[in-house]
């Protein structure tokens, strides 16, 4: 598995992450929690931008927000590994358990 933390995100991805962090700090506390997934959509977007860069991270984050609606079952949804579009491991297994073994 490729370590997603070893690569530094592009400047555009860093700006996008800063925007999401501003949302998390100032807007999200005012709005009642209603995300149907874990991690939350904004945390997913930050991780996707850090792992995949600006363009693919934006696409993955937007797709996640579109899926987070009242008709969705929700659940655990991990960011896919670098170079992948889908998470290929069981969703009930935490990522840190995959990195240990």
Automatic annotation (TrEMBL):
Kindly state which keywords UniProt assigns to this record, in alphabetical order: Cell membrane, Membrane
Record keywords: Cell membrane included? yes
Q: SMART domains attached here? A: Haemolytic
Residues passing through the membrane, by range: none
Q: What span is annotated as the signal peptide, if there is one?
A: none
Q: What is the topology of this protein in the membrane according to its UniProt annotation?
A: Peripheral membrane protein
Q: Pfam families, from UniProt?
A: YidD (PF01809)
Q: Which GO terms describe its cellular component?
A: plasma membrane
Q: Please state where this protein is localized.
A: Cell membrane
Family of this protein: Belongs to the UPF0161 family.
General function of this protein: Could be involved in insertion of integral membrane proteins into the membrane.
Q: What is the protein's name according to its record?
A: Putative membrane protein insertion efficiency factor
What is the native source organism of this protein? Actinomyces gaoshouyii
């Amino acid at each position: 598995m490729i370590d997603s933390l070893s690569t530094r995100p592009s400047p555009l991805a860093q700006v996008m992450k800063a925007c999401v962090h501003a949302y998390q700090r100032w807007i999200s506390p005012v709005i009642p929690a209603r995300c149907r997934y874990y991690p939350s959509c904004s945390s997913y977007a930050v991780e996707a931008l850090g792992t995949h860069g600006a363009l693919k991270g934006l696409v993955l984050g937007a797709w996640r927000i579109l899926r987070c609606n009242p008709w969705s079952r929700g659940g655990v949804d991990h960011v896919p590994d670098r170079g992948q579009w889908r998470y290929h491991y069981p969703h009930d297994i935490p990522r840190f358990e995959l990195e240990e073994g």
